[in-house]
Specification:
Strand 13 and strand 14 form a beta hairpin. By secondary structure, the protein is of the alpha+beta class. It is 37% helix and 14% strand. It folds into 4 domains: 69 residues, Zinc/RING finger domain, C3HC4 (zinc finger) (Herpes Virus-1, 2-Layer Sandwich); 41 residues, no CATH class; 71 residues, no CATH class; 60 residues, no CATH class. One of its GO terms (biological process) is protein ubiquitination. Its cofactor is Zn(2+). Keywords: Metal-binding, Repeat, Transferase, Ubl conjugation pathway, Zinc, Zinc-finger.
Length: 295
């Protein structure tokens, strides 16, 4: 009629019928978190009192239920009971249903298994397949068999996906930048590092941080390799019996001269050698032997 308009808290004005259609469409499709001011640069929330007038009692009740459901789904400490689908508060990896009192694992949603390894997604798929097969056989049906290709597909999807840091939902990127919006909880995060998006966390800054981390890891690897080589070299050294200075043999010659204290000594018995002719020979130490480390 030209006179029925809606004024939002952000001071934007819209046609009442348009806002009514816009609100009902989002509630019907379940995208209630996107039910905000239609202006692209605004995003102001619509007051519940106004939504109740636009949606009606039945639509507003569905909106409240969906918002509550989305809020639960966005919480990492909420798990759903595998028996009655009641929302439960998880304590680390276990949760107890307040409705049916069933205690279950918040990860695989099976019976609580303290001290046992949790099943991987592909192992859970095989377990579900076996249970479904047994159920179908009891009913006289063969049932659909989950093939190895299905398990391989799940592995590939999980391998190429990044878990949303807000709700744990697996997200796979086809193209575009690293700033991702989770379809489950409607929150953004960085696909490159898997951290929640923030004002200072841009794609360019993330790339710089990852490059710094890569350089730091490479430097640490170089230092670690040098330490290993030094440790290996010192294990092959023969300390001087006088000053304990590590010295190395020249080839296979066991006669070593310490430059620090100017003493000759034997690498086999680690004693000072006064006269080499008397120390080495058939009745003494062998002057030329191969160290076990060099074999």
């Amino acid at each position: 009629s030209g006179i029925d308009f809606v004024e939002l808290p952000c001071r934007h004005y819209y046609c009442w019928r348009c806002m009514e259609t816009y609100s009902k469409l989002h509630v019907k499709e379940g995208s209630v978190l996107k039910l905000v001011c239609p202006d692209d640069k605004c995003g102001c929330s619509i007051p519940p009192k106004l939504l109740k007038k636009l949606l009606g009692d039945a639509g507003f009740e569905r909106w409240e239920r969906l918002v509550f459901q989305k809020t639960l789904d966005s919480r990492a400490d909420v798990a759903y009971c595998p028996r009655c689908e009641t929302a439960c508060l998880a304590d680390e990896d276990s949760a107890q249903c307040s409705n049916c009192l069933f205690t279950f694992c918040a990860r695989c949603r099976n019976r609580r298994h303290v001290g046992e390894r949790c099943m991987t997604p592909e192992e859970k798929l095989i377990s579900v397949q076996e249970r479904e097969k047994a159920r179908n056989l009891s009913k006289g049906n063969a049932g659909r068999k989950v093939s190895a290709s299905d398990i391989f597909s799940i592995k590939e999807i999980l391998r190429s996906s990044v878990m949303c840091p807000h709700c744990g939902f697996a997200i796979s990127r086809v193209s575009g930048c690293d700033q991702m919006l989770c379809r489950n909880c409607e929150k953004s995060f960085c696909y490159a590092c898997g951290k929640p998006s923030s004002q200072g966390h841009t794609s360019e800054q993330c790339k710089i941080d990852r490059e710094k981390l890569r350089v730091k890891v490479e430097v640490n690897d170089v230092v670690r390799n040098m330490q290993k080589e030094l440790k290996l070299a010192l294990s092959r050294a023969h300390p001087c019996p006088g000053c304990r200075q590590p010295n190395f043999k020249v080839g296979n010659n066991n006669h070593i001269f310490c430059e620090t204290c100017r003493v000759h000594y034997c690498a086999l018995c680690h004693t000072v050698v006064r006269k080499s002719k008397e120390h080495y020979g058939p009745r003494g130490c062998k002057q030329h032997t191969v160290d076990p480390d060099f074999v």
